[in-house]
Every structure is written in structure tokens, then in C-alpha cells.
Specification:
The chain is of the alpha+beta class. The chain is built from twelve helices and ten strands.
Length: 463
């Protein structure tokens, strides 16, 4: 608008000066004599001036069209630029804004004038924006920052701000031009890129972990294969040890049976014969040989004690009743003698209906040895006053239980280690498992200890 006013003033001044010059010419021409030649010359000059004016007018019209076209082009470039242009003063007050800038903020251009741009800056980015604005007016050159802006409805978007202070020719007020670009898509792409890089790094680590685990798995498989071989070898050795233990126990039982038979059948009979001969000598001795009779009587008593000890020792090695009469009578005889020797109250009940006699010799021997060792443990460690023993038939196996009212112990702490009474427990368990049976021990405070042995008629146990 200021340009148009100055152009009108220049045209009026030019017309005024032209009219003054024309009046001077008219005064001069009236004073001079006019001739036809002068008239023709003046007419020619007027025509030339008219053509010159027409040409100048055409040039001015072209220049005005070019200026208007340039102004229109500039207006299009400014208003429809791909970025928002804001003209602001030092306080962030918006002086001018193009249509793109108004569209970014979602506000009509006329409503943005004289409003502060800080109003549209998110709170988290406001300190950065104020520092950026201060730097624009304090330092020369272009300044750049990124901030989160909010449009009129509060939707956030990321913006790139580039600004430089502009020289003011018409006033002392400082101002700057700020170019605002929406970089939300770029930010999202950067975030996506960061996530992809993080995912790539995570995948790389995962691949390394997979490779490591595959190596570990391979090593474990190799170790497992080696462990299986070791386990198989261990099982084979355990089987050999069990077979050897069974052979040793069988050999011990056979040797005990042989020694018991020899003690009972030969040595006891020999001692009995000696006692008989001594009796005969005593009867045949002269009545006056009282000293000899006393010596013979004393020797007879020693022989009788020897016979009793031989019978007792033979019974401890292997009672003849176990082979001659069966398991139940042998147990009755042993417990009666054991109660007499230890003072324990032992109650024995049997519910087998004679089925124990269907057990082979090895299984009957195992039951007898378990009962023998269990009662020995009670006498040595339990401090009990009463023992209950039962043996009964259950489906396809025989169960024996020995329960005392003595003090308890930690089964898990004693049985696996084989300490003290654990040696006897391990021996009992070993004997029972050798014939396909199952051995358990239960012990709790106030309830004493229960030893249970279950042995099938044949190999294997069925509950």
C-alpha cells in the first residue's frame, strides 16, 4: 500500500511540472511570429512526444504487470510454502504468518496475529524454545531447535524450528523470521529406526545366546551320553555288588548252618557222650573215693554248661527250628529267649494261616534276620520297654512289622549315611531288597519306631 501511494504522488508531481513547462512554451510561442513551417515542426514534435509517452506508458504497464506477477508469485511462495513462516518479535509475539503456519497450528491466520507462539509450545519443550528464541536475537546466523508443539485442539506434533534475526529498516523493533517444519513422521521414523536397531541388537544377542545354548546343549547331550554310560556301568557294578552280597550272605548262611549243624550234631553229641562216660565213672568209683567223685561231678557240670553254650551258640548262628519247624516257631523261640535275656516285653502276633511255609528258605531267612537285627537295635538304642511284632499275609506278599515305644531318630539322617544303628538298617534293607522286597522305617517323637519288611512269594511286589 505504501508503494501505491508513492507512485500516485510521483505521477501528480510529474503532471504539475509538465503543465508549468507547457505554459512557458505557450508564452514563448505567442511572442514569436508563427509560420507554417513552425507550426508543422511543433506538430511533428507533439506527435513524437505522444508516441514517446505511449511507449513509456506501455513500458510502465509491462513493468507493473511484472511487479504484480512477481508479487503474486511471492505471495504464493510465501503462503503455500511447505513450511510455516512466522515473523516474531523478541517476546515471541506473532507479527506475520503464512497459511502453512496457520494450518500447522489449526488456527485462522487472522487469529494468530499478536498471539505468542509460546502458547502453542508443549510444557516439556517450553524451556528449550525460550532459550532458542533468546539465542536468535543474541547471536548472528541461523539457529535451530526441535520442540513439541500443540495445535488448537491439543494434538501434539514435533516441529523443526530454524530462525535468524531480520534487519528492521522502518522501525527500531527487533524481529525474526522462523521457519517451522512438521517432523513428526521423521521422529517416528527415527524412533522406529532406534527400535529396529535395538531389536537388531537384541536379535544379535539372542542369536549369540542361541549359539551358546546350542553349544551347552551339545555339551549336555555329550555329558548325558557319558552319564548314561556311567549310570549303566554303575548299575552293572551295583548289580554285581548285589549279586556278590547275596552270594556272601548265602555263603554266610550256609556256613552258619554248617557250623550250627556241626556244633549241634557233633560237638554237642561228643560232649554229651563225655558227660555219660563221666557218669559211669562216678558210679563205678569206689565208695571211699569221695574226692574223685567230687571232681567227676564238677567235670560233669562243666560239660553240661558247655553243651548249653554250644546249643545257644548254634542257635544264634542259625536256629535249627528255622529249617526243621518253620519261620513262626523259630521266631517264637528266639523272642522268648531274647525277652528273657533283655527284660523287654515282646508281643508277637501272626496272621499268615501257614502261608509263611510257602516261602523259600532264603525269604524265611531274611524275615528271621530282620527280626533278629530289629530287636537288637531296640535293645541297644531305643530305650524301649515294649515291642510289638506282627507278621501277616497280604495278597501276594508277607509283611513283618516291628514297632517299639522307645525314642525316635531322624531316619533320613541315619539310614543313608550308615552311622551307628544305620549299619543294621542298611543290612536289613539290603537283605530285603535282594529277594525283591521293600523295606521302610518310620520314626517320630512320641510314637517310637516302626520297621516294616514286605517280601513277595515270587519276584516283584504287588500292592
Amino acid at each position: 500500500m505504501n508503494g501505491k501511494t508513492n507512485t500516485s504522488a510521483d505521477a501528480a508531481e510529474l503532471r504539475r511540472r509538465a503543465e508549468v513547462r507547457l505554459r512557458k512554451r505557450q508564452r514563448n510561442t505567442t511572442a514569436l511570429p508563427r509560420t507554417e513551417a513552425d507550426t508543422q515542426r511543433l506538430l511533428h514534435e507533439l506527435q513524437v512526444h505522444q508516441i514517446e509517452l505511449e511507449m513509456q506508458n506501455a513500458e510502465l504497464q509491462d513493468a507493473r504487470d511484472e511487479v504484480e506477477a512477481g508479487l503474486e508469485k511471492y505471495t504464493d511462495l510465501y503462503d503455500f510454502a511447505p513450511v510455516g513462516y512466522f515473523s516474531m518479535d523478541e517476546q515471541g509475539l506473532i507479527l506475520e504468518v503464512n497459511l502453512t503456519g496457520a494450518a500447522l497450528l489449526g488456527v485462522e491466520r487472522s487469529r494468530l496475529i499478536n498471539r505468542r507462539l509460546q502458547r502453542f509450545v508443549a510444557s516439556m519443550s517450553r524451556p528449550v524454545f525460550l532459550a532458542f528464541l533468546e539465542k536468535v536475537f543474541a547471536e548472528p546466523g541461523k539457529q535451530v531447535c526441535e520442540a513439541s508443539l500443540l495445535n488448537e485442539d491439543g494434538t501434539p506434533f514435533w516441529a523443526d524450528l530454524q530462525a535468524a534475526s531480520a534487519p528492521s529498516l522502518r522501525s527500531a523493533r527487533k524481529w525474526c523470521r522462523v521457519a517451522v517444519s512438521d517432523i513428526t513422521a521423521l521422529k517416528r521414523a527415527e524412533e522406529t529406526q532406534r527400535r529396529m536397531e535395538a531389536q537388531t541388537a537384541a536379535n544379535r544377542v539372542l542369536k549369540q545366546e542361541i549359539v551358546r545354548r546350542q553349544a551347552v546343549e551339545k555339551a549336555l547331550k555329550k555329558s548325558e551320553k557319558y552319564s548314561r554310560r556311567l549310570l549303566a556301568e554303575s548299575l552293572r557294578l551295583q548289580k554285581q555288588l548285589r549279586d556278590l552280597s547275596r552270594q556272601i550272605l548265602d555263603a554266610q548262611e550256609d556256613e552258619r548252618k554248617r557250623i550250627s549243624r556241626e556244633l549241634h550234631d557233633e560237638i554237642a553229641q561228643l560232649l554229651t557222650a563225655v558227660s555219660l562216660h563221666l557218669g559211669a565213672l562216678k558210679r563205678e568209683a569206689a565208695p571211699s573215693s569221695k574226692g574223685l567223685k567230687r571232681k567227676i561231678a564238677h567235670t560233669q557240670r562243666l560239660v553240661e554248661r558247655s553243651v548249653n553254650m554250644v546249643h545257644q551258640f548254634a542257635g544264634q548262628l542259625r536256629p535249627p527250628a528255622l529249617d526243621d519247624l518253620g519261620l513262626i516257631p523259630a521266631l517264637h523261640s528266639y523272642m522268648k529267649d531274647f525277652a528273657k535275656r533283655t527284660g523287654l516285653s515282646i508281643r508277637f502276633t501272626s496272621f499268615t494261616r501257614g502261608r509263611t511255609e510257602q516261602l523259600d528258605s532264603a525269604r524265611r531267612t531274611v524275615f528271621y534276620r530282620v527280626a533278629q537285627e530289629a530287636l537288637t537295635n531296640v535293645a541297644k538304642h531305643a530305650q524301649a520297654s515294649q515291642v510289638k511284632m506282627s507278621i501277616r499275609k497280604l495278597r501276594d506278599f508277607i509283611r513283618m512289622e516291628v514297632k517299639d515305644n522307645g525314642k525316635s531318630f531322624q531316619v533320613q539322617g541315619v539310614l543313608p549315611t550308615g552311622r551307628n544303628k544305620g549299619l543294621g538298617l542298611l543290612g536289613m534293607r539290603e537283605r530285603v531288597e535282594m529277594v525283591g522286597g521293600r523295606f521302610t522305617v518310620e520314626s517320630s517323637p512320641g510314637k517310637g519306631t516302626t520297621i516294616r519288611a514286605e517280601i513277595p512269594f515270587a519276584n516283584g511286589i504287588r500292592d
